[in-house]
């Protein structure tokens, strides 16, 4: 039996989402842009899903959304689409250096190819963005600030409301946040954020589906041209079934978010206590982080070897982010937090669901102890 503890990478689809997906695929399969009854039915489901997502997040009056293939496309549209559209206001972009690669890469491209000035913000040993540094670097030429809600490696929860207040002192600047690891898990001040992105498969929806939510007053230069779908922001036939499944999954996780969070805090506290009883474990996740993500480093063993050994014993975890693991010798997130390079080269991330049981985690601790005794240290 495999115990899956890599839910920050992807989750199992919820049954309710799968049922909704199948129903739309089989009974409402029309192209929502087609001008006939089957197309109109599909379009109705698409717009119903859009309204449901906005309502689930409490932003129906202030925000709109565009359906996309996931957070990677959403982050690209948010950053490049807004930057190109508003570059007459200024060409400075501020960002935290511990963002997901789907944020860092578009910002690097804007800087290297299109003349934008990309300025990293300082983060402390917990991974928290320095508000003082943000205040010092904000000026009239800044058009975008991007700081994620919950870090995908450490679970660090950023002070989003305080960041938004600083950014919004400058009327030409927009605040973007990648909320992929926050949606359905920890509270976020959605109303304070100008544009935010997420992927459905992180909370029980289907892979290949995501969304960018944005203030209704915002405009973007579309990255994909070829049709007027999604109000001209994203050409191509929309995955209606995936949108419906995402709306259903989001409603499910949002309604139980508060109770799940309290349970997960208790589970995390117990797990971390047992984890730190192992001599060579160094915890990377701060105390007030998301209880769904726990990151620790090994001081005397190679993490990749231990991760492989854990998988052979039925415990699936990850060493670094699934989006940056190939050819990545160290965690750039941990290095930016000032961690020792040796520890940054040997992290293990364990990420949970509300259904995770304490006895499963006890089994993980036992397996980890045995592996550390059996595997040759560095």
Outline of the structure:
With 378 residues, the chain is α/β, with parallel strands linked by helices. Helices cover 40% and strands 14% of the residues.
How does this structure look, described?
By secondary structure, this protein is α/β, with parallel strands linked by helices. It has twelve helices and twelve strands. The strands form three sheets. Strands 2-8-7-6-5-3-4 form a seven-stranded mixed sheet, sandwiched between helices. It has a three-stranded antiparallel sheet with strand order 9-10-12. β5, α6 (160-167) and β6 (174-178) form a beta-alpha-beta unit. It starts with a strand and ends with a helix.
Q: What does the secondary structure layout of this molecule look like, with pairings?
A:
Elements lengths: L2 E2 L10 H13 L9 H20 L6 E6 L2 H16 L5 E4 L5 H14 L2 E4 L10 H7 L4 E5 L13 H8 L6 E5 L16 E5 L10 E6 L24 H16 L1 H20 L4 E3 L9 E6 L4 H10 L2 E2 L15 H5 L4 H4 L2 E5 L6 H17 L4
Parallel strand pairs: 1-11, 3-4, 3-5, 5-6, 6-7
Antiparallel strand pairs: 2-8, 7-8, 9-10, 10-12
Helix pairs in contact: 1-7, 2-7, 3-4, 8-12
């Amino acid at each position: 039996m495999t115990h899956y503890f890599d839910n920050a990478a992807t989750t199992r689809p919820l049954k309710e989402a799968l049922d909704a997906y199948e129903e739309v695929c089989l009974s409402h399969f029309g192209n929502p842009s087609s001008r006939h009854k089957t197309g109109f039915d599909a379009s109705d489901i698409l717009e119903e899903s859009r309204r449901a997502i906005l309502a689930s997040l409490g932003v129906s009056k202030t925000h709109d959304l565009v359906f996309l293939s996931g957070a990677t496309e959403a982050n690209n549209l948010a950053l490049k689409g807004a930057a190109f559209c508003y570059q007459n206001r200024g060409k400075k972009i501020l960002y935290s250096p511990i963002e997901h690669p789907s944020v860092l890469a578009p910002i690097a491209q804007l800087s290297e190819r299109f003349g934008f000035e990309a300025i990293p913000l300082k983060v402390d040993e917990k991974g928290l963005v320095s508000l003082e540094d943000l205040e010092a670097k904000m000026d009239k030429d800044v058009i975008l600030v991007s700081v994620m809600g919950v870090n995908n490696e450490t679970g660090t929860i950023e002070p989003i409301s305080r960041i938004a207040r600083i950014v919004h002192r400058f009327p030409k600047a927009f605040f973007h946040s990648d909320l992929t690891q926050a949606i359905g898990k920890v509270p976020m001040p959605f109303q304070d954020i100008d544009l935010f992105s997420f992927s459905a498969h992180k909370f029980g929806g289907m892979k290949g589906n995501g969304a960018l939510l944005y203030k209704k007053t915002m405009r973007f230069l579309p990255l994909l041209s070829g049709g007027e779908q999604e109000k001209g922001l994203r050409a191509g036939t929309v995955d209606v079934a995936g949108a419906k499944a995402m709306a259903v999954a989001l409603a499910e996780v949002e309604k139980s978010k508060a109770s799940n969070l309290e349970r997960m805090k208790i589970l995390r506290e117990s797990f971390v206590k047992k984890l730190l009883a192992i001599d060579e474990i160094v915890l990377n996740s701060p105390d007030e982080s998301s209880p769904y993500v726990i990151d620790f480093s090994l001081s005397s063993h190679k993490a990749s070897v231990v991760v492989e050994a854990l998988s052979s014993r039925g415990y699936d975890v990850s060493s670094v982010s699934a989006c940056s693991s190939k050819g990545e010798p160290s965690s750039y997130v941990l290095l930016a937090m000032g961690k020792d390079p040796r520890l940054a080269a040997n992290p293990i991330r364990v990420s949970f669901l509300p259904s995770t049981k304490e006895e499963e985690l006890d089994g993980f601790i036992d397996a980890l102890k045995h592996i550390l005794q059996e595997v040759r240290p560095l």
